[in-house]
Write a structure and sequence with these properties.
Belongs to the TRIM/RBCC family. It is found in: Cytoplasm, Cytoskeleton. This is Tripartite motif-containing protein 46 isoform X2. InterPro entries: B30.2/SPRY (IPR001870), B30.2/SPRY_sf (IPR043136), ConA-like_dom_sf (IPR013320), COS_domain (IPR017903), E3_ligase_FN3/SPRY (IPR050617), FN3_dom (IPR003961), FN3_sf (IPR036116), Ig-like_fold (IPR013783). Keywords: Coiled coil, Cytoplasm, Cytoskeleton, Metal-binding, Repeat, Zinc, Zinc-finger. This protein is of the alpha+beta class. Among the domains are: 117 residues, no CATH class; 91 residues, Immunoglobulin-like, CATH 2.60.40.10; 160 residues, SPRY domain (Jelly Rolls, Sandwich). Helix content is 29%, strand content 22%. It has 14 helices and 38 strands. The chain has a seven-stranded antiparallel beta sheet. Strands 22-23-36-26-32-33-34 form a seven-stranded antiparallel beta sheet, with no helix packed on it. β33 and β34 form a beta hairpin.
Length: 746
């Protein structure tokens, strides 16, 4: 009993999966759309009719054709179908929908029937045949029927042939597609007729064919096309439509899909605690969402009320200013009116002057008339130059609220910053990693940033990917100190403001140098010719200027000429371990050699440096001698990479660039473009030096080197040229972020 109650409970919880997305009722004869969603056949026909497609409602024989197939027993949805208007129908027919006289079947441009799937909200291509080319989901029909029986939806199944009131059905007939009571079944299946051979079934509301039939050929499906992901019959299999497709027997597809579904279902059932935990977490998130939403509403209301209070206070102050200005003007105008009224005959100042004129005592008249005359003179002048004492206009009190109205109109919620864009031109790895980024033009501002990084060349650990994180990085650049050498780092950035964290930037991958970075300066005591070489004040750049020997060589092109080699050394010597440094060579340089060599040999070469003899008159150019063969196996004391005119000369062997004299054999040599920066990696113990593209860390050349003594960086110039050592990243003033002691991020 408990198991049965559990089954009923699970069936009730499953009801949502059995509702058609169109009518929100139990599926009836569901069809499988190409997008794998289901819809009732009657609903699909109704939707297509509303879309204006005529004659593509599927196979009419799919509707009940039994004696009980009366209008009252058909689906009530058929009566609600809305057909297109006649004028719209005429336009649809003329535009290519449906079949009309003059339109041939199988035209060059077949009609494309699009069905708006209500589940995925997308248009699904049904092909030329429309609903007639879709499969019925018989499995879903069986599940719906079992669900109806388990929860007793709709009560008992009644006989469709009885006179009212109908009796409860006891049998069903697949061929007749109707349910019968015992008496009606005997009546409609009399002995001695073909109907008597119909096999009775249990009463049901949905009659299905015995097997899944191909909608194109009405044959039983036997295979599954993996390419089209569609069941096919034998005729479909041999048709050109599935030519070259991977087709397997339906039994294999059945077993494979059943195993996958069983495995997935077993995993879900075995992790019910996890599901319940996530449900609780989601419910808690819902509660927090409700609380946070209410708080956000209150905050917005409070802010808007604050704006209203500020506006009300400002309104009161502005009105008070207008009121004061108005009272002042009214007072001035009132006084002016009184003055003019006193000029009327018999009143005020005029009446008083008339009485004074009646005075006959001359001294008394003079005494009184002097003051009166001044008043009369001012009144006369005011009368002649009349103008109101105050203006009636208040234009100076007009408000320009255009900017404020625009700000209020644009008032909106603060958005999180958009995903930053990492500047790949300025981001690089040397002794440290320098990361630079910027926000998109119309992105909201960010208060601070979060940098996440990890190594990609380490074995993956089980579980989610773990990132190293640095929080609250100010500015738009940062330094990551102490990276591992010979590694690949992936980095990303996201911004944060009051609204929260934004999206991450696209990942950028950086290669770190293969060895610890060697810091050094150019030594001006060795190899410096003040006439031709100029070392910068910071001793990190050197430029060679063509001197008199090169001009003389250009003058004596047809005679033997000697070109001096100018050498500049680094101020450090390597005696152990592995070291790496990088430099940039001016692409316009005539001839530059970048590399390393034994300190003693370099000094000897500088003190008695042989001139580079023109190959035209060099007696040993391109020829071997016994002395040379005797030392061919010994490691050379120098290893140089030759650069000239924006190209790198790569010889046929490691020794091709191992000398200062430039007598490299040109045979089997090639040139490659000069990268923005060159990297040199010295392995003292192995006696090897590698030349790399310092941007991509692609190897250019590897040479042997005699490491029997201290080894120095060296730079050689013939003609004009310039070299710039790459500065350590740590010298930049940007913020430093140390790798170590970081927080882990799942």
């Amino acid at each position: 009993m408990a198991a049965k109650r559990g089954t009923k409970t699970s069936m009730k919880n499953m009801e949502r999966e059995l509702l058609c997305p169109v009518c929100q009722e139990m599926y009836k004869q569901p069809l499988v759309l190409p997008c794998t969603h289901n819809v009732c056949q009657a609903c699909a026909r109704e939707v297509l009719g509303q879309q204006g497609y005529i004659g593509h409602g599927g196979d009419p024989s799919s509707e009940p054709t039994s004696p009980a197939s009366t209008p009252s027993t058909r689906s009530p949805r058929l009566g609600r179908r809305t057909l297109p208007k006649p004028d719209r129908l005429d336009r649809l027919l003329k535009s290519g929908f449906g079949t009309y006289p003059g339109r041939k079947r199988g035209a060059l441009h077949p009609q494309v029937i699009m069905f708006p799937c209500p589940a995925c909200q997308g248009d699904v291509d049904l092909g030329e045949r429309g609903l007639a080319g879709l499969f019925r989901n018989l499995t879903l029909e069986r599940v719906v029927e079992r669900y109806r029986q388990s929860v007793s939806v709709g009560g008992a199944i009644l006989c469709q042939l009885c006179k009212p009131p109908p009796l409860e059905a006891t049998k069903g007939c697949t061929e007749c597609r109707a349910t019968f009571c015992n008496e009606c079944f005997k009546l409609f299946h009399p002995w001695g007729t073909q109907k008597a051979q119909h096999e009775p079934t249990l009463p049901t509301l949905s009659f299905r064919p015995k097997g899944l039939m191909c909608p194109d050929h009405k044959e039983e499906v036997t295979h599954y096309c993996k390419t089209c992901q569609r069941l096919v019959c034998q005729l479909c299999r041999v048709r050109r439509t599935h030519g070259g497709h991977k087709i397997t027997p339906v039994l294999s597809a059945y077993q494979a899909l059943k195993d996958k579904l069983t495995k997935s279902l077993t995993y879900i059932l075995g992790n019910q605690d996890t599901v319940q935990t996530q449900i609780c977490e989601l419910e808690e998130t819902v509660r927090h969402t409700e609380v946070s939403g209410q708080q956000a509403k209150e905050e917005v209301s409070q802010l808007v009320r604050g704006l209203g209070a500020v506006l009300e206070e400002k309104r009161a102050s502005l009105l008070q200013a207008i009121e004061e200005c108005q009272q002042e003007r009214l007072a001035r105008l009132g006084a002016q009116i009184q003055e003019h009224r006193s000029l009327l005959d018999g009143s005020g100042l005029v009446g008083y002057a008339q009485e004074v004129l009646k005075e006959t005592d001359q001294p008394c008249f003079v005494q009184a008339a002097k003051q009166l005359h001044n008043r009369i003179a001012r009144a006369t002048e005011a009368l002649q130059t009349f103008r109101p004492a105050a203006s009636s206009s208040f234009r100076h009190c007009q408000l320009d609220v255009g900017r404020e109205m625009k700000l209020l109109t644009e008032l909106n919620f603060l958005r999180v910053p958009e995903a930053p864009v990492i500047d790949t031109q300025r981001t690089f790895a040397y002794d440290q990693i320098f990361l630079c980024w910027r926000l998109p033009p119309h992105s909201p501002p960010a208060w601070h940033y979060t940098i996440e990084f990890r190594r990609t060349d380490v074995p993956a650990q089980p579980g989610p990917t773990r990132w190293q994180r640095r929080e609250e990085v100010r500015g738009t650049s940062a330094l990551l100190e102490n990276p591992d050498t010979g590694s690949v780092y992936v980095l990303r950035v996201r911004g944060c403001n009051k609204a929260g964290y934004g999206e991450y930037s696209e990942d950028v991958h950086l290669h770190t140098p293969p060895a610890p970075v060697l810091h050094f300066f150019l030594d001006g005591r060795w190899g410096t010719s003040r006439e031709r070489l100029a070392i910068s004040k910071d001793q990190r750049a050197v430029r060679s200027v063509p001197g008199l020997p090169l001009l003389l060589a250009a003058e004596r092109l047809l005679t033997g000429c000697h070109l001096s080699v100018d050498v500049v050394l680094g101020d450090v010597a390597v005696t152990q371990g592995r070291s790496y440094w990088a430099c940039a060579v001016d692409p316009a340089s005539y001839l530059v050699k970048v590399g390393v060599g034994l300190e003693s040999k370099l000094q000897e070469s500088f003190q008695g440096a042989p001139d580079v003899v023109s190959p035209r008159y060099d007696p040993d150019s391109g020829h071997d001698s016994g002395a040379e063969d005797a030392t061919v196996e010994a490691s050379p004391p120098f290893a140089f990479l030759t650069i000239g005119m924006g190209k790198i000369l790569l010889g046929s062997g490691a020794s091709s660039n191992a000398g200062l004299t430039g007598r490299d054999g040109p045979a089997a040599s090639c040139t490659v473009p000069l990268p923005p920066r060159l990297g040199i990696c010295l392995d003292y113990e192995r006696g090897r030096v590698s030349f790399l593209d310092a941007v991509s860390f692609r190897g250019l050349l590897e040479c042997p080197l005699d490491c029997s003594g201290p080894v120095c960086p060296a730079f050689c110039f013939i003609g004009g040229g310039a070299v710039q050592l790459q500065e350590p990243v740590g010298t930049k003033p940007e913020r430093k972020v140390t790798i170590g002691g970081f927080a882990k991020l799942d």
